């Protein structure tokens, strides 16, 4: 895993881009809005988001259970705490998925390529261009944002579904506000 491409281009969205992406996503119609908000607020993989069902979303406590698709066992789940507003938005956008008889149906009835195109469109509308303007850029941006917000490395490892903490530690390589503050003291 890398945070920078071979040409040195950043592969994650930064905090300013993240805020623009979220603002643009909130103005979209239901399926695109919900998909983009889930990706940005959980750091899950695109394919993991497309597997979410009504049962995956837990109102109390506000969590989303994500089936890790990179694990060999199909029953490996991880629960991520999310803001209450996101749970309310998912329920409002996908009310039919929370009916008792349809709670195991996927929230999104779109292909992976369609979902990928939605993310690219939101990136373009948010004026985010370059190597970071992808669903994976959102995932990496979530990791960088979480570390900069003070989330412990072992908790971020769990949330992202990494088997090795060394993979998660790579997010610490991004320059954040704390690193800049320390550098300013030196200057």
Report on the structure:
This protein has nine helices and three strands, in the order αααβββαααααα. α1 runs antiparallel to α2 (30-42). With 187 residues, it is mainly alpha-helical. β1 and β2 (63-67) form a beta hairpin.
Sheet with most strands: strand arrangement: 1-2-3
Pairing-aware structural class of the strands and helices? mainly alpha
- Number of helices in the DSSP assignment: 9
User: Distance N terminus to C terminus?
Assistant: 32 Å
The profile of the biggest β sheet is: 3 strands, antiparallel
Strand content: 5-15%
Mean pLDDT: 89
Helix and strand sequence: HHHEEEHHHHHH
Helix content: 40-55%
Q: Unreliable stretches, pLDDT < 50, 5 or more residues?
A: none
Shape: globular
Strands, count: 3
Give me the Rg, rounded.
17 Å
Strand and helix map with partners:
Elements: H1 15-26, H2 30-42, H3 46-50, E1 57-58, E2 63-67, E3 77-81, H4 84-93, H5 112-125, H6 135-148, H7 153-160, H8 165-169, H9 177-186
Antiparallel strand pairs: 1-2, 2-3
Provide the descriptors you would attach to this structure in a database record.
187 residues; 49% helix; mainly alpha
Short description:
With 187 residues, the chain is mainly alpha-helical. Helix content is 49%, strand content 6%.
């Amino acid at each position: 895993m890398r945070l920078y491409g071979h040409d040195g281009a950043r592969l994650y969205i930064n905090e300013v881009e993240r805020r623009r992406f979220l603002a643009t996503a909130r103005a979209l119609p239901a399926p695109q809005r919900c998909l983009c908000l889930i990706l940005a607020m959980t750091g899950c993989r695109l394919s993991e988001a497309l597997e979410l069902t009504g049962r995956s979303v837990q109102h109390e406590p506000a969590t989303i259970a994500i089936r890790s698709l990179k694990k060999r066992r199909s029953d490996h789940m991880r629960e991520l705490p999310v803001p209450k507003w996101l749970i309310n938005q998912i329920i409002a956008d996908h009310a039919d998925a929370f009916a008792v008889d349809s709670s195991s149906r996927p929230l999104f009835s779109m292909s992976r390529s369609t979902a990928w195109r939605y993310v690219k469109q939101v990136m373009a509308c948010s004026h985010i261009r370059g190597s970071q303007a992808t669903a994976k850029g959102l995932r990496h941006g979530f990791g960088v944002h979480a570390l900069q917000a003070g989330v412990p490395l072992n908790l971020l490892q769990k949330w992202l579904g990494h088997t090795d903490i060394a993979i998660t530690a790579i997010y610490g390589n991004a320059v954040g506000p704390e690193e800049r503050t320390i550098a300013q003291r030196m200057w």
